[in-house]
Amino acid sequence: MKIKIFSTLFFIVVSLLLFGCKQNTIPTVPIEIVITYKGEKVEGALVTLNPVIKDGTQRAATGMTDINGHAAISTPGGNNNGSMEGDFKVTVMKTPSIGGTENIPEYATYEEAVADQSTTNKTMGSENIEHLLPIKYASENMTDIMISVKKGNKNNWTFDLKD
Which residues of 19-45 are buried (b: 16+ CB within 10 A; e: fewer)? Predict the structure, then answer.
């Protein structure tokens, strides 16, 4: 009887160790991205990989650039090393500060605000944010940077942003 109880308990413990402690991380692929602007490495920019296919099977990945312009990309729920496989639109944004409320111009009409936005590197919203890089790279709809991440490929890119 003791052997039967011991065997059953042993089986339960082994089963829990083998199947119950499995990590539920999203598989990611290591990637390297370097951002430059006018030939200079960009520090402090937010780089986001936005999935082209929006069916919920892929997740966006993000990273901040360091002093060498290198972005350490990671995916939420992943192993903090890269992005999921797939096709991505890459956005890059750098601002002096986000969430500040100083020097926000007031506009008489919505049309006036849109006109000002189209002639400056500022976006509309609850805050008026000045972009330190070309604004087209801050928008998923406007960026022309596309990458395809595949396991087994080198997955290294350097992007020199242009005005």
Answer: eeeeeeeeebbebebbbebeeebbeeb
Whether 151 contacts 82, CB under 8 Å: no
Q: 56 falls in which pLDDT band (50, 70, 90)?
A: confident
> For the chain, which residues make up each domain, given as ranges?
32-161
Q: What are phi and psi of 15, to 5 degrees?
A: -60, -45
How do 156-161 and 32-37 pair as beta strands? parallel
Cα–chain center distance at 54: 15
Query: Token digits for 49?
Result: 């990989």
- The string of pLDDT tens digits covering residues 103-147 is 555 555 556 655 665 555 555 453 567 888 999 999 999 999 999
pTM of the full structure:
0.69
Q: Rounded distance, CA 111 to CA 113, Å?
A: 5
